[in-house]
Amino acid sequence: MASKAVAFKEEGNKCFQAGDYKGAEALYTKAISKDPTNPFLFTNRAFSRIRLQSWEDCINDCLKAIDLLPSNMKAYYYLAQAQLALHHPNEALNSALTAYDLCLSSSNSSTRSVSELVLQVKREKWEVRERERLRTRNDMLGELEEKLEASKADDLEEISARIKAGFLSSTEAEDERNATEDSARRKSEELRSIFALADPENVQKRASNS
């Protein structure tokens, strides 16, 4: 059975080298059916699935390979790539760092490639945090601006009520409306300035210009 698995694997390697990743995947699957305890067959199929962008299937293969051989560096390396493609940077970073540690402990020649992946994952993780920060910032700014608009509307409504009650002349009401509009506009501008000053990019720019 093992010899048949080897034969299928070698045929799969030929397909992979020729760019026939679907054919390689099918042949590695046949090899696995003949030798399901060989972790390297799962990493071979995982690699073909990376080329096919079959991320979930790749993850399943990597996890199986790791279960069979916990020190399988390639399985962690491929796993990190699939997790990153699915936008799971935290999990990807853990997998990539494990692959890096395994490289160092075994003096593996893939250390440079793995370290580049670690950096790529860290960048993605930072970008996710930055997108979330901006979303939260914009949501908060939006809420505060809505409150300013609601306050202005209340003030303008009060002015209208005072006109109807005879407490204000039309000229006085117009002056108060203009004052209310100007005050609301200044508050909105001040609010946006505060948020802009709190932005890390602006803080960095001010520091570099000082």
Q: Any chance you could write out the topology, listing elements then pairs?
A:
Blueprint: H1 2-17, H2 21-34, H3 39-51, H4 55-68, H5 73-85, H6 89-106, H7 111-164, H8 170-198, H9 200-209
Helix pairs in contact: 1-2, 2-3, 3-4, 3-5, 4-5, 5-6, 5-7, 6-7, 7-8
Description:
By secondary structure, the protein is mainly α. Helix content is 86%, strand content 0%. The protein has 9 helices and no strands. It has helices at 2-17, 21-34, 39-51, 55-68, 73-85, 89-106, 111-164, 170-198, 200-209. The termini are far apart.
Q: What's the shape?
A: rod-shaped
Structural class: mainly alpha
Cα gyration radius (Å)? 31 Å
- Note the run of SSEs as H and E: HHHHHHHHH
Task: Estimate what percentage of residues fall within beta strands.
Answer: under 5%
Given the structure, what is the number of helices?
Answer: 9
Helix percentage range:
over 70%
Oligomeric state as shown: single chain
Beginning-to-end CA distance, first to last residue: 72 Å
Give the low-pLDDT segments.
202-207
Largest sheet entry: none
How many DSSP-defined strands?
0
